[in-house]
Amino acid sequence: MLFKQQALLRQKLFVLGSLAIGSVLYLVARVGTLDRLQPICPIESRVPPPEPEQIPLRTLQFKRGLLHELRKGNATKEQIRLHNLVQQLPRAIIIGVRKGGTRALLEMLNLHPAVVKASQEIHFFDNDQNYARGIDWYREKMPFSFPHQITIEKSPAYFITEEVPERIFKMNSSIKLLIIVREPTTRAVSDYTQVLEGKERKNKTYHKFEKLAIDSNTCEVNTKYKAVRTSIYTKHLERWLKYFPVEQFHIVDGDRLIADPLPELQLVERFLNLPSRISQYNLYFNATRGFYCLRFNIVFNKCLAGSKGRIHPDVDPLVVTKLQRFFHPFNQKFYQITGRTFNWP
Asked: What residue stretch is flagged as signal peptide (predicted)?
């Protein structure tokens, strides 16, 4: 009986041993097969193909400090060469509108790690003397950037200057154009307020807004007054549409950008084909100033200059109503052309 049990045990051990040896041999063979296949398609290196125009955002975020040094003029030529930095022509331009919020829009877009802004208004396309200096002069006015970043400049005079659309078209017929607008009467008063402040600083007198905006001879709206003429958005846009399709324009709501900036900035991100990176963390309301300030990171915050958000002078309500009625048909046409409607009177 004992011998039979021992024989049965040896038989089971033999079967188990055979199975174990077979498994080991199979694994060895399998590993060998994988080793042979690895050079063709290693499993760990199977990465989906990158999307076109992929922007190395994490890298750009870490290198913001270098770009800041460049803007201050502290970076060396060796740093520029090592980091493959270039001065690029803008791929998007904020062309207007004056007193619509162009500076606020530019500064807020600069929160995006794939955007680099030209700090000053270049006035290349609207200034004959600057334009005569050539495109290389214009490029040299641009900030240093990484190749995949988008350079943006803003010069609000572009929108109302007749020669500018053709000049920009000759530089880049596929450029993206941003127009930020506000309720036209409010914008006109804001325009007046800025000029008035400049006059007062020089101890000069200036007419009241009502006298400038209304023709005293006809009692009608004075379209020769530049602040009024600038607010007839559709007249200027029609000139631009002779050169660029409407799809290359994006209209930003300047009033909404002041009150609730994030939704407007997200629309611009999509228009520029940028991944969404600007968040509510980057924007915080400053109760003292009365508008939103910018948070780039845990240590660096920025508010717009104190000259922004000037208090407007009181304007005769009858003049305000007359201006709103005057602008109304132009506004309706502007809505129709752009496909964006505003709650303007």
From this structure: none
Report whether 100 belongs to an annotated binding site.
yes
CA distance 186 to 173: 33
Residue 15 Cα distances to 3, 4, 7, 77, 125, angstroms: 18, 17, 12, 75, 89
**Catalytic one among 4, 72, 99, 211?**
99
- In tens, the pLDDT along 13-71 reads 554 555 555 554 444 444 443 333 333 333 233 334 334 344 444 444 444 555 555 55
Residue 175 assigned ligand-binding role: no
**Which among 101, 154, 115, 117 is positioned nearest to 261, based on CA atoms?**
101
Q: Which amino acid type is present at position 99?
A: K
* 290 known member of a binding site: no
99 in active site: yes
What pTM value is reported for the model?
0.78
3-class state of residue 87 by DSSP? strand
63 annotated to a ligand binding site: no
Beta-ladder partners of 176:
92
